[in-house]
Amino acid sequence: MNTKTLLLKDRIAVDAAHRAAPAVLALLFGAFLVLGTGFAQSTTIHNAAHDGRHAFAFPCH
Q: Is the model's pLDDT at 31 over the cut of 80?
């Protein structure tokens, strides 16, 4: 009989690893959005995000 037994501790470790990757990617993407538009020198990006920055008290000039 070829049955495989997955222990609970192994399953928890696998689940944690699968949940960590999207969380890290979301954190990096969010940091890129905040810092990328917050400190952008391009006038197009600056003007597009200008009101939102001031609404969240993010200094831009």
A: yes
